[in-house]
TrEMBL record:
Domain CS: 5-94
Organism: Bombyx mori (Silk moth)
Top-rank taxon, per record: Eukaryota
Name of the protein described by the UniProt record: CS domain-containing protein
Gene label: 101746199
GO MF annotation terms: Hsp90 protein binding; protein-folding chaperone binding
Classification via CDD domains: p23_hB-ind1_like (cd06465)
Any one GO cellular component localisation term in the record: nucleus
Length: 157
């Protein structure tokens, strides 16, 4: 094991009532401490047996009792419950106004503040398969603005 401690790669996204954090490291026994104004992560991570540690000062307060985390083997997911859900989205995760090289936005989970719904499952139901086909030109129904050139083409044999 090396003596150098490095921060893990962290990605984040948010909703009105919660913050999603992902520690992108494989750590069998992580030590995660959620406080109202910060979250700490510490652990020896595989396969290098390297110590990762970070203290994240949060932009606003969270409720540690309503927050939770789960170790999924290759990553650790954290759900932080915002203390004040009626306030606007946080402009950043951290309160220190610094650009951290280990912190990035999780665009797969991100949802804009003005979008309705609060669950990830609702995002999958936003468009049916038919709606997606129409949007991307996959539907065979005619559009009133088509020029009719497709009708003049002979069948491919």
């Amino acid at each position: 094991m090396t003596s150098q401690v490095t921060p893990p790669s962290v990605s984040w996204a948010q909703r009105n009532a919660r913050i999603f954090l992902t520690f992108n490291v494989e750590c069998e026994k992580p030590d995660i401490n959620i406080e109202p104004k910060s979250i700490t992560f510490k652990g020896i991570c595989e396969p290098e047996k390297k110590m990762h540690e970070v203290l994240i000062p949060l932009y606003a307060e969270v409720d540690p009792k309503k927050s939770m985390w789960v170790n999924k083997g290759r990553l650790i997911e954290v759900l932080l419950a915002k203390e004040k859900v009626d306030e606007p989205y946080w402009p950043s995760l951290t309160s220190d106004k610094k650009k951290h090289h280990w912190l990035k936005v999780d665009f797969n989970r991100w949802q804009d503040e003005d979008e309705s719904g609060d669950d990830l499952d609702n995002m999958n139901d936003m468009f049916s398969d038919k709606d997606m086909n129409i949007q991307f030109g996959g539907d065979n129904e005619k559009d009133d603005s088509s020029s009719g050139e497709e009708e003049d083409l002979p069948d491919i044999e």
